[in-house]
Amino acid sequence: MLYYAHKKEDGQLQTVRDHGEGTASLCARFAGAFGGEADGYFIGMAHDLGKCSEGFQRRLLEGGPIVDHATAGAIACAMRGRGDLACAVIGHHGGMMDLGNGRTDAPGDATCFGRMKKGMANGLQTNCPALPLPEVSKTMPFPEDPLAASFWTRMLYSCLVDGDYQDTERFMTGGAVQRGGFDSLEILLARLRDYIAPWQHPVGSLNTCRSEILNACLHGGQHPQGLYTLTVPTGGGKTISSLAFALSHGVAHQMERVIYVVPYTSIIEQNAAVFRKILGAENVIEHHSGVTWDSDGETSLAQCRQRWAVENWDAPVIVTTAVQFFESLYSNKPSKCRKLHNLSNSVVIFDEAQMIPTAHLRPCVAAIANLVAHFRTTAVLCTATQPVLGDLFHDFAPDLPIRELCPKIAHLFAPFRRVTFRTVGTMTTKALADALCRQTQVLCIVNSRKGAQDVFSHLPTEGSFHLSTLLYPAHRQAVLDEIRCRLKAGQICRVVSTSLIEAGVDVDFPAVYREQAGLDSILQAAGRCNREGKRPLESSVVTIFESELPLPPLFQQQVGAFRESATHDADISAPETIQRYFSALRSLLGDNTDDAGIVQAFQHGIAGCDMPFATVAKEFHLIDNDTKTIYLPFGEGEKIVERLRTGQATKKDYRKAGRYSVSVYEQHFVKLEAAGALWLLDEDSAILQDTSLYDEKTGLSLEAEAGQALCI
Predict the structure, then answer these.
(1) What secondary structure, in 3-state letters, does 604-662 show?
(2) Mean pLDDT to the nearest integer, 8-17
(3) What is the mean predicted confidence (pLDDT) over 41-51?
(4) In this predicted structure, what is the pLDDT of residue 305?
């Protein structure tokens, strides 16, 4: 009897065997990048075993009820002693389940074992002559290391999901989707060499140092695959230098792609623009919330290829966020996990590596260590303020050395020093505002939105600007454009901002005031002072002060580490001070580097439940999302927000609406709602109804008068 897996609208049918063999071939090829060919081929053949049943054939051919077609293949995996493969197979559509406990789980429990026991009780068949299963090892990789085994399972799951999708896509479209077609890393490296050729004859000491860093990275092919740091001072050209290492290293080791992981979308947009200019726009894929790949009518083949590459990162250069990267690595959903196998045999650059949230430092380091140790990935931690992570990497990959690409760090930092640091004591808001008013152009960065508004309220209207996340992104961009124009024209420009201006925002002030924070934040702030290096170091002053307002809890450990490391005679920008700071911070953090208990969950299970993929996916969020979204009907956002209100918004509208939104904590959201200021979309989002609460200078006010709601 022939069993069918898919049916096209014209009635054409694909057999289960054809689909199984097609998926298995793709899955084995993908898994071959990390030595998992046999496991990949087996799960590709087994994943749709449940379609060899009367129930599924009736549903496919006649429109019968939904049939579970994944459990039979999972049972076939488990019968061969491979619970890890069972997790991959059972979740290839709905997402990986917790493996559970084979002894205690009851039929029907929400675990892989529970579902398999229910299937066996219902008499699911796990043998089908129409779909013969190959041999597979009965030994799971890394039996002594459950965390490593979980990453192996997740990567195989990624191979299966992508192989299944691509084989189905190929059948359903008749091969119309043409994936790939990008330029090779060899071609991209040649383009980069042409671009940087004029830099090989530097003029001046700074350009000589930049050239030294760049050329050290261009020799990336001489280094083995592994784990690296790239510690480059601000202004040292780390974006191009890290690209040079990635391409030369990738070409030398016949690797597939370069992946940039950055903390902010503002940095992504800047870096991606540089990469597109050098390498060709068609070869660079941005994957983050600010980019829309939905098709509006006719698109070119190159655009289609880019849109398809977002699904599985099958492109030579990917630029993404740390949130997208790490949350995908701990996800259990097909759409998020599909791309993970393409991390194998890739160079991954972690830009501004010090910004990995400390509350999730341990699981993030665990992910990087496992990628490098087991999946032929080369990782580079790239920053001017290199965090101290050697002990954590040793925990997960004891034999993995960490090598610095530019070992002459101290020699390189001195020429790039562009500011003088001055530390003062506590400053009242009034005293701080008076000090700012004595400057024609000055930037002041504080630790809270309330602090920014308080200081701003004491400044004269002319030439004063306020920046915080209470301004919607499109508005912030317009304000920044005006700030840059005034700075360039030499006009009065006094800016009070939260830390959002520190990373990835290209502004150049002659003086900066920074409220005491972590040393990395202070040095980021210093990067906004004398950024172009055109002013004397002595007159480019970064003043570090303490506020009269209480220190937000979020900053307490960082400030404590700064005070411990920045002694009265210390050069706070020196590499040894930076290392002392991160060592002190790690000491203050203690064991608080895995708030969600992710590593423990995989190493020891949860209450007897092994491989808790679904549970971990719910718990792991790189940025704690305890905020709600308020959409603002201003400017170009007015029409978009109206479509949200009337229920006519598309997925593309929602993405664009992000440029006209503000995130607020729940207590502020509730207060605004109680005052009748909001029009609710759902429990987590609303439209600002009382537009008087949005100020052109300070953004959304969180203080609304009560009693404005209409009672009907």
Answers:
(1) HCECCEECCHHHHHHHCCCCCCCEEEEECCCCCHHHHHHHHHHCCCCHHHHHHHHHHEE
(2) 95
(3) 97
(4) 64
Query: How many other CB atoms are there within 10 angstroms of residue 692's CB atom?
Result: 9
pLDDT (tens digit per residue) in 331-371: 999 999 999 999 999 999 999 999 999 999 999 999 999 99
> Residue 579 corresponds to which tokens in the numbers above?
């290392």
User: For residues 662 and 688, what is the distance between their CA atoms, to the nearest angstrom?
Assistant: 10
Q: How far apart are CA 570 and CA 592, in angstroms?
A: 28
| Burial of residue 139 (number of CB atoms within 10 Å: 0-12, 13-18, 19+) | exposed
Nearest alpha carbon to residue 124 among 163, 89, 164, 159: 89
Determine how many CB atoms are found less than 10 A away from the CB of residue 106: 11
Q: One-letter amino acid identity for 51?
A: K
Please state the pTM of the whole predicted model: 0.91
Amino acid 84 reads: D
Q: How far is CA 288 from the centre of its chain?
A: 8
Sheet holding 511-515, edge to edge: 420-427, 541-547, 511-515, 441-445, 493-497, 464-467
Neighbouring residues of 228: CB distance < 8 A, sequence distance ≥ 6: 245, 378, 379, 380, 381, 402, 403, 404, 405
More confidently predicted of 385 and 291: 385
* Amino acid occupying residue 609: C
Helix axes 83-90, 112-121, angle to 10 degrees: 80
Q: CA of 35: how far to CAs of 22, 160, 607, in Å?
A: 19, 15, 32
Backbone conformation region of residue 533, classed left if phi is above 0, alpha if psi is from -120 to 50, else beta: left
> What is the three-class DSSP state of 319?
strand
Give pLDDT tens digits for 428-445.
Answer: 999 999 999 999 999 999
**Beta-carbon contacts of residue 170 (< 8 Å; ≥ 6 apart):** 22, 177
Asked if pLDDT for residue 655 goes beyond 90, the answer is no
Nearest-angstrom CA–CA distance, 359 and 486: 39
Exposed e or buried b per residue across 306-320, where buried means at least 16 C-beta atoms within 10 angstroms of its C-beta: bebbbbbbbbbbbbb
Q: Read out DSSP for 96-122?
A: PPP-B-TTTPPTT-SSHHHHHHHHHHT
pLDDT tens for residues 624-634? 767 899 999 99
Indicate the range of 205-219, 235-249, 303-317, 452-466 predicted with least confidence: 303-317
Q: How many CB atoms lie within 10 A of CB 582?
A: 20
What is the pLDDT at residue 710? 34
Phi-psi region of 597 (alpha: psi -120 to 50; beta: other; left: phi over 0): left
**What are the tens digits of pLDDT across the range 26-35?**
999 999 999 9
Q: Of how many residues is the chain composed?
A: 712
C-alpha dihedral over 590, 596, 597, 599, to 10 degrees?
A: -100
Residue in this structure with the two tokens 């904590």, named with its chain if needed: 665
Instruction: Decide if 284 contacts 317 (C-beta within 8 A).
Output: yes
Amino acid symbol at 697: K
38-48: string of b/e by CB count within 10 Å (b at 16+)?
ebbbbbbbbbb
The alpha carbon dihedral of 620, 624, 628, 630 has a sign of negative
CA atoms within 13 A on the CB side of 231: 23
Give kind and range of the element (H or E) at residue 431.
helix 429-437
User: DSSP assignment, residue 398?
Assistant: T
